[in-house]
Specification:
The chain has 61 residues and is mostly helical. It has one domain. The protein is built from three helices and no strands. The longest helix is centred in the C-terminal third of the chain and has 23 residues. The two termini are 18 Å apart.
């Protein structure tokens, strides 16, 4: 459970950095999201999951 909470804390730090350091880029990206096809968004999500699992596997392995 501690690992999960640590991961969630890192997620919050990274999200906070994006909002604090590049709010205009974040707004542009959010405006662009509705124009992207769902298949492309799904692919980005699956690639992100695979990269995250791979990194955890490398770090913890």
């Amino acid at each position: 459970m501690a690992d999960f909470l640590t991961g969630f804390a890192f997620f919050l730090v990274i999200e906070g950095l994006v909002y604090a350091l590049a709010p205009s880029s974040l707004k542009r990206m959010a405006a662009l999201l509705p124009t992207l096809p769902e298949a492309q968004l799904r692919l980005f999500g699956l690639v992100s999951i695979a990269l995250g699992v791979g990194l955890v596997w490398l770090i913890r392995g």
